[in-house]
Structures are given as C-alpha cells and as structure tokens.
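Input.
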Amino acid sequence: MKTVSILFFLTIALLASDNKDIMRAQILEKIISNISINETVTVWSDNKELLAELKKSTHIITSNDCAKATVIILENKEKIHDDACKNKPIFVLEYNLLKELPKSFGAFFWKKGRPNIVIIEPRIESQNISVSKELKVYVEEKVW
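Output.
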C-alpha cells in the first residue's frame, strides 16, 4: 500500500509539473506575440522544457542558438555566456533578474501562487520594443 501511495504521489507531481510548463509557455506565447521589435521575433530560452513547449506554437519562431535569437527568455543568468546574447532583449522568468540584468525589459514570475507580468517602460523604449494595448496594463516605470 505504501508503494502504491508513493507511485500515485509521484505521478500527480509529474503531471502538475508538466501542466506548469505548458501554462507558462502559453502565457509567454501571448506576451511574445504582443511585442514588436524592428525584426522578426525569434526566441531562445535557457529552459529546455519551456523552449520545447514554445516550439509547438504556430505563432512563435524558436532557435536552439541564442546568437540567432532576437529575444531571449532567461531563467538563470549563469546560463548565458556569449556577449552577443547578453546584448539582446531579454525577458526573464525571475523578478530579481530584472534588477541584475539591465538588458531585461520584462519578467514573468509566480508570486503567492499567482502569475505576475512586469514590463519596464524605459527599457522597452531604449530597445525600440513596442507593446500592444493588451500588455499596457503590465507596463511600469521602474523595477520595484
């Protein structure tokens, strides 16, 4: 009985983890689809599961190489080594990375069990990124 309970718990945990990646990819797809830069938006992420989910999208072009991407979705700043990649627009998955990475223009993160989106206005202006009316509610003047 104990073994069955453990297997049941692990199965539920695995399914919840997959659903979280799918939900995060869907939200990021909406965000990326509602921004525009001067060229075609191609996305790279250091999170391989997220990148795999984004590849399923019909609205987003993805790349396996950050140097070929026009927008980077970053979860861990230690995973980006190439200077060419550091100088591209970066959307982060942890709020504290907004403070640490001046090229990051926005963040999507979970706080108190709820998704939060923040886009920093001076940063999108300096990087010539425009956001749709749908994203205007998430635009803020500065990092809190």
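Residues 1-17 have pLDDT under 50 and may be disordered.
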